[in-house]
Amino acid sequence: METDAVRERLLKRRDELRQRASDASADLRHEADPLSADFAEQVTQRENDDVLGAISHSARAELQQVEAALRRLAQGRYTTCAVCGGDIEPERLAAVPYTDKCRACAEGARPMPGRGRPGG
Ligand SMILES: [Zn+2]
User: Fold this and answer.
1) 119: CA distance to ligand 1 center in Å?
2) Tens digit of pLDDT for each residue in 28-57?
3) Between vectors from CA 74 to CA 69 and to CA 77, what angle results, nearest 5°?
4) Span from the CA of 96 to the centroid of ligand 1 (angstroms)
5) Separation of alpha carbons 77 and 54, rounded Å
6) According to the model, what pLDDT value does residue 120 have?
7) Which residues, in sequence order, are CB contacts of 48 under 8 Å at separation 6+?
8) Span 76-87, mean pLDDT?
9) For 76-79, which contacts have Cβ atoms below 8 Å and span 24 or more sequence positions?
10) Is the Cβ–Cβ distance between 19 and 62 less than 8 Å?
């Protein structure tokens, strides 16, 4: 595996995500677009905020994964599955460069961990 190329790719992705998260946050704070005095207009703005919040949230979540992948890369554990300890398939890493699970473990897991755990 070309560690340097992977690191470059992850660093580039990290910068993109940081930019996206901070852009969405700035919009959420209405730095350039203050809340309207008009109620109907405010409703539209708040709906837009929900979308921005989701963008910001997903960018931050991916950012954490990318940063974790960079740490694993530095520690020489980048290709090691965090669940079973086996090797992560190279084609899987090519498709999802920040993954920490092999295909079998990833498919066994729920794709999107929800808020809170059902049934404890
Ligand atoms: Zn695994």
Assistant:
1) 25
2) 898 888 888 898 999 999 999 999 999 999
3) 65
4) 14
5) 31
6) 43
7) 27
8) 95
9) 78/1, 78/3, 78/6, 79/1
10) no
